[in-house]
Amino acid sequence: MNQTLPLIFNPIAGGSGQRKLRQALQALENEGASVEVLSTSRAGSATSLARQAAAKGVRRLLVAGGDGTINEVINGLAGSETELAIIPTGTANVLALELGVPSEIAAACRLARESASTRIDLGRAGRRYFTLMAGVGFDALVINNVNPALKRSIHRAAFPVMGLLTFLQADLPLLTVRCREYESEGYFVIVANSRYYGGKFGPTPEASMIDGRLDVCVLKGKSLQEMLNFWLAALRKNQVDTARADYFQADEVEIICPAGQPVPVQTDGEIIGELPLKVTVVPSALRVCAGRELNN
Predict the structure, then answer these.
(1) How far is 210 from 118, CA to CA, in rounded Å?
(2) CATH code for the structural domain at 128-283
(3) Pairing outcome for strands 83-88 and 60-65
(4) pLDDT tens figures, 209-240
């Protein structure tokens, strides 16, 4: 690939992004690549930049960032032939982990230049595409409550700290989840396209990005013990305890709060709105560069 490679970068993303960008540019230059850095300027600009690249027929688009920046980019690339190549520079790089993209910057740059692409499914929550998951209720409250300064200072540890505070303060309403084959009720819902959640947590261990289905996990209780047991099992990537949570697959689900309370929704770690919500799978909607073979 000898053409100039466009690279989208979020200059205010978490982690040591600026330093890692410099490393990436040096690694790409050492391999003889010509790179055009496209810096984001505001929320949504990564989507606009990606959509423009797809409209121009760009073959491969590099993204140096974390999952939030990547989520914006895929919302500009969904359904196009432009390939996404990830250089993981964010606080969390869950999609990179799922795709087998190396955390070491030079190795990630080599993969971005040399690998073939493969197609993956995307989820769509309302009008918003996601690669990893949509979370409804508890986790979205945590994300909404995390102070950016706290996230910058203690990085990933900000989420368990805020998770405990949110649990102690929030009154989680009962949610209803419906699909054609099944109906469930619970206090926290994950609709996943990926095995991984936040880092190496695996509350949906059977999920695949190429099977044309979404994996749905519904936590049925809301006590502190039930919540802790759920996340400990997710950390170990255990099979879901069906006494504690419902786990099923669907290509479309609807989630509502019968009590009518405002319940936030997040996709790939970014708040996108509130219930009610319809979530669907869009098979083979995105081309990505992966470092491993994806399992069906």
Answers:
(1) 10
(2) 2.60.200.40
(3) parallel
(4) 999 999 999 999 988 888 888 877 777 766 66
